[in-house]
Amino acid sequence: MSERNPDLVLYELQSCPYCAKVRRALSDLDLSYESRSVPSSRSQRSEVYEVSGQYQVPVLVDRTNGIEGMPESDDIVEYLYEEYGDGQSPPPSGVIGRLLSVFF
């Protein structure tokens, strides 16, 4: 398991429900991170593309472990809990996960 205060960067949109799922996992795990808000227009997300090879968010960078640009919210959440969760299980995904991210 890596150190408790990793060097994390999250490329995100505030209104994105998938980004909210990742923010919730980061909060649940009490991990600090740098938030980088991206333009709402995908065509203007050159920084996200440079990091991950695609324009969608969220994208996680974990400099502590050499993760240069991990896309897909479910993959990010699973990674965070596996790497920093001290045995905790990730929250549910799918409809239940979306409802939790909206209301909590």
TrEMBL record:
InterPro entries per UniProt: GLR_AS, Glutathione_S-Trfase_N, Thioredoxin-like_sf
Membrane-spanning parts: none
Highest taxon of the lineage: Archaea
Domain GST N-terminal: from-to ranges: 6-88
Pfam families (UniProt xref): GST_N_3
Gene3D superfamilies assigned: Glutaredoxin
Name of the molecule in the record: Glutaredoxin
Organism of derivation: Halovenus carboxidivorans
Lineage: Archaea, Methanobacteriati, Methanobacteriota, Stenosarchaea group, Halobacteria
